[in-house]
């Protein structure tokens, strides 16, 4: 089994790493500065580590994030929060700078779903988006090409979002669809067709591993496996913390038979996905290309996300030297996003969207 990016957990205030890493400023068009982590650190983060060791460290990191453990690090969190927020200031506080940087450029919006457009809840089937968020995203899509980029499969996320005018990149970007031809940003005017499925030949394999994961984990109370078409998600949120190691081992024991699949970590979830080099960052690039901005310097992509998997998109923006990433997080976290938005995310995200719309009108 190969593994990458198995690093972040849900609520853990990862202060020490977040503030101790020396960041290198990267100038981007506009008046502000983005920060990126030194290459050696990025390479280090992506090193594949022995599976067993990795699973143990992941479970340890989840334990440390549970409320009882988190209390002991709270004062540290408070102390160091100020330092983190200086590096990743609130996108609302920096709104004028964002507007200045995007001047004369086409803003293109990329939005993660869970934890960004909808609150994190125990039951993944109940992660509803509010009507006010839907209305605001609809308005946003009238002004700027807008995509949902999510770990969920397109069908599920569409049921929540219900906006036909958006682009959707489901299964961590492995299933990309465009909006119907009636919408103005669909330049090709080809309606609702599949734009890209880079791992389509692995569909039967994912279906098979999903069934095996269901079977293997059924004895663990609270465990849940979600079929996300090109990925499968094993949820830990409702499992007794004492059983997390056991559940992680169950997942690992299934995965070791599937060299074409790998494991990544999200918020109290392990995600099984193809080993192909495709992620939310690649999906962002693909969508920009589909929109006709492949080599354009007149585009300003804004990506908003809350999760480890969104970091690939934040990094892609830094590599392109365009636009900016906004991390939705209550706690300081190691991130390649330039700015932050804090929970309750709905209020702050809607407020940011309203300000963008107001400025555009
Ligand atoms: O890329 P995203 O849109 O952020 O999707 C990532 C995963 O999100 C969902 O799980 C997360 O949200 C659930 C509902 O709030 C929560 O119960 C779970 O603990 C979180 O990990 C979704 O269920 C997964 O399939 C997505 O891959």
TrEMBL record:
Protein name (record): Trehalose 6-phosphate phosphatase
Catalytic activity: alpha,alpha-trehalose 6-phosphate + H2O = alpha,alpha-trehalose + phosphate
GO molecular function: trehalose-phosphatase activity
InterPro entries, A to Z: HAD-like_sf (IPR036412), HAD-SF_hydro_IIB (IPR006379), HAD_sf (IPR023214), OTSB-like (IPR044651), Trehalose_PPase (IPR003337)
Organism annotation: Lupinus luteus
EC number: 3.1.3.12
PANTHER family in the cross-refs: TREHALOSE 6-PHOSPHATE PHOSPHATASE (PTHR43768:SF3)
CDD domains named in the record: HAD_TPP
């Amino acid at each position: 089994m190969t593994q990458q990016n198995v690093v972040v957990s849900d609520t853990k205030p990862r202060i020490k790493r977040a503030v101790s890493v020396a960041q290198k400023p990267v100038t981007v068009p506009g008046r502000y500065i983005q920060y990126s982590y030194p290459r050696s650190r990025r390479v280090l983060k992506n090193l594949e580590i022995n599976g067993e060791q990795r699973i143990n460290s992941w479970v340890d990191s989840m334990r440390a994030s549970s409320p009882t453990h988190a209390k002991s690090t709270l004062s540290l969190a408070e102390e160091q929060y100020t330092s983190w927020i200086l590096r990743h200031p609130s996108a609302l506080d920096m709104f004028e700078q964002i507007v200045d940087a995007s001047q004369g450029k086409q803003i293109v919006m990329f939005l993660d779903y869970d934890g960004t457009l909808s609150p994190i809840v125990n039951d993944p089937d109940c992660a509803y988006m509010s009507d006010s968020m839907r209305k605001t995203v609809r308005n946003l899509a009238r002004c700027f090409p807008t995509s949902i980029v999510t770990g969920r499969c397109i069908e599920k996320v569409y049921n929540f979002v219900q906006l036909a005018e958006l682009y959707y990149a489901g299964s961590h970007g492995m299933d990309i669809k465009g909006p119907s031809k009636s919408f103005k940003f669909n330049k090709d005017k080809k309606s609702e067709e599949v734009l890209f499925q880079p791992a389509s030949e692995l569909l039967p394999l994912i279906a098979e591993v999903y069934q095996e994961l269901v079977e293997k984990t059924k004895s663990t109370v609270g465990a849940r496996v979600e079929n996300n078409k090109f990925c499968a998600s094993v949820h830990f949120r409702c499992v007794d913390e004492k059983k997390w190691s056991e559940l992680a081992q169950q997942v690992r024991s299934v995965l070791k038979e599937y060299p074409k699949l790998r494991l990544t970590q999200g918020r109290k979830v392990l995600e099984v996905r193809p080993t192909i080099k495709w992620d939310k960052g690649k999906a962002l690039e693909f969508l920009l290309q589909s929109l006709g901005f492949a080599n354009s310097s007149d585009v300003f992509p804004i990506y908003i996300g809350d999760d480890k998997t969104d970091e690939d998109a934040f990094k892609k923006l830094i590599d392109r030297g365009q636009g900016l990433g906004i991390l939705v997080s209550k706690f300081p976290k190691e991130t390649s996003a330039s700015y932050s938005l804090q929970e309750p995310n709905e209020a702050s995200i809607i407020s940011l969207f309203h300000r963008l719309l107001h400025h555009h009108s």
